[in-house]
Amino acid sequence: MKRRHLLQSAAALAVPTLLSQAGAQSFPNKPIKLVIAFPAGGPTDITMRSLADNASKILGQPVIVENKPGAGGTLPAQQLQSAAADGYTVAQIPLGVFRLPYTTKMSWDPITDLSYVLNVTGYAFGLVVPMDSPLKTWTHFVGWAKANPGKLSYGSTGTMTSPHLTMELIAQKLGIELLHVPYKGSADLMQSILGGNIMAAADSTGFAPQVEAGKLRVLNTWGAERLAKFPDAPTLKELGLDMVQNSPFGIAAPRDTPPAVVKRLHDGFKQAMDMESYKNTLAKYDMTPMYMSSAGYLKFAQETFKREKALVEKLGLLKSS
Known about the structure:
CATH architecture of the largest domain: 3-Layer(aba) Sandwich
Structural class: alpha/beta
Order of helices and strands: HEHEHEHEHEHEHEHEEHHH
């Protein structure tokens, strides 16, 4: 009798596992939603839609992009906290997600409460001004800021994003005070600087079309080397600032998503990354494929989480306990 009860108990425990495995084997059998952190029309939206189109062909189901801008790019990750752990809702994870616990009271953890699928690319950043601006070079920019404390306005893609924090760190290093104006994404930011509402814009290279059209000038870029598209723009390191800022981002699913589903998503999006159409779309914004496996992306997240605390502390933005 006791043995029979043990066998029944073991069978009962095995049922959810078998159902989960069966669901994973048939995954996907309906559309997948990919939530991204910035508005339509910007470089994130355009490149992620290219990736989603490719993944749709590979996975055999539509991958539908949903834009969820605001809160420094962290809303998609927050949305995963209430989504079903079945792989049908996935989200872009910008670097700002790893800063959130240090600046905001929150009930979830970006390391333990997400299932990391893969990293897909990263942003190249820089600072631009209108072509008719009197701030023709970085020297002019810094000189004007020193002469007019708190009056040189610059926009970014949101408070606590990489462009915002990098500009604040630059200001701290140089002893200047800037006026930060946050926007929801690159498309809004570009409209504002072209409309004369701000003096400069710190952004990913979504500004490239406006530079090529002769409407904006690049004062500097933030990578380890000059960008091929803007060979005359110096890096921060060349300007005496020992800084390199790039910002990898990838895709995650809700916590407790079955490993077989995570693997299916990984394999589908990895193949989508390797397609020429995606690479060509990235190249328009000086972006390249930047692959990390599920395990590699989790390790990157853990390391970045620690590193971002140091940056937030340095800028005096760490929330009080």
